[in-house]
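Please go through the protein record below and explain what the tokens say about the fold. Record follows.
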Amino acid sequence: MASIIKANQLQDFGGNSILTSDGAGNLTTQKINYPAFEAYSSTNQTLADNVAEKVVFDTEKFDTDNCYDNSTNYRFTPTVAGKYLFFVSVRGSTASTQLRDMYIQLYKNGASLNNFYNEFTANYIKDFTPGFVTIEEANGTTDYFEIYARIDTNDSSDATLTADQTTNHFGAYRIGS
């Protein structure tokens, strides 16, 4: 024998909605993975040789809570405290086969927090797309996150971060408290 429990809202002991139903079987749950965003670069960016520069991710794919600045500071300032999963990928290239090494770094509040580095000692290449995923904590008020890149070329020439929404992107979403 089966039992049926009818309810249109499930609450915790504090009276907060955990799960609601519209009566037609459509459920609404908490927005656990918010705020969230993903942005990419819509134009190429020139980097001076061997100088770390902020990456300009100027086009948003989405921004659930308007926490990413895609026009001035190119930074994510989450408004909800918790742990966030960050992902980044940046494609760097040179005019010829001169790329010696490349860093991409996640900065928190103006200081380097996490990075990916690759060196091509004697076998220089023309382009490279490093990326990484990391989990970091945000306080929900003042913490902000940015991406910096540095490319060292064998001939001291400038390098380019190639605009591409699949290989040159930055995003994050909340995974919990």
Remarks:
- The first strand starts at residue 9 and ends at 11.
- The mean pLDDT is 89.
